[in-house]
Design a protein that fits this description.
With 78 residues, this protein is of the alpha+beta class. The chain contains 1 helix and 5 strands, in the order αβββββ. Strand 3 and strand 4 form a beta hairpin. It starts with a helix and ends with a strand.
C-alpha cells in the first residue's frame, strides 16, 4: 500500500515524455510516460542483444511497461 502511494506521488512529480511507438501489431500509438530509467533496461537473448529497450511508467496503463528501442518513432519531453 505504501509502495503504491509512493509510486503515485513520484509519478506526479516526475518528468513526463510523449512517446510515439510502433507496437508489435504494427499499430502506431502515443503514450505518456514518466521518467525513463535506463538502468532498468532489458535485453533479448534471441536477438543476442544486451540492451533492447527500457522500462518506464505508462500513464495509460497505470503501470510500468517495456519499450523497445527499435520501435520508438519519436520521444518528446512534455
Amino acid at each position: 500500500m505504501i509502495n503504491k502511494f509512493y509510486t503515485k506521488v513520484k509519478n506526479k512529480l516526475s518528468t513526463k515524455y510523449y512517446i510515439v511507438y510502433k507496437c508489435s501489431d504494427n499499430k502506431t500509438k502515443t503514450y505518456l510516460i514518466g521518467d525513463i530509467n535506463l538502468y532498468k533496461s532489458f535485453g533479448n537473448k534471441h536477438e543476442n542483444r544486451d540492451n533492447a529497450g527500457f522500462k518506464a511508467y505508462c500513464f495509460a496503463r497505470g503501470a510500468v511497461r517495456s519499450f523497445r528501442h527499435d520501435r520508438i518513432l519519436s520521444l518528446t519531453k512534455k
